[in-house]
Amino acid sequence: MEGSSHLLLMAVVQEQDLDAATQALQRIGASSTYLSSAGGFLGRRNATLLVGLPADKIQDSLKALREACKQRIEYMSLPLEGSPMPMPAPVPVTVGGATVFALPVERFEQI
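^ thats the sequence. predicted structure below, dont judge the formating
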């Protein structure tokens, strides 16, 4: 289908937010496909959602993802610098939320 204004959203969410995110998108009529992925910093399992939608639904989709994917504080153990023994010290890290990319779609076809 050419000439219509569509977007491809790529949303990276934590695996624990996947069900809430896909259900929130379904409620607004946006279907999604997900790919398993992993974060580089914490090495946690994530999901990358691929969502094709008309450009006028972008705000609804962002609102749905914002409500479904909450940020939270978790503690990660890091070794103390200069310590003779590797004693881990818990460090607060903000995780969660969603990282969303919106890409214009030149053409798509449903076959």
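Residues 59 and 65 are 10 Å apart (CA to CA).
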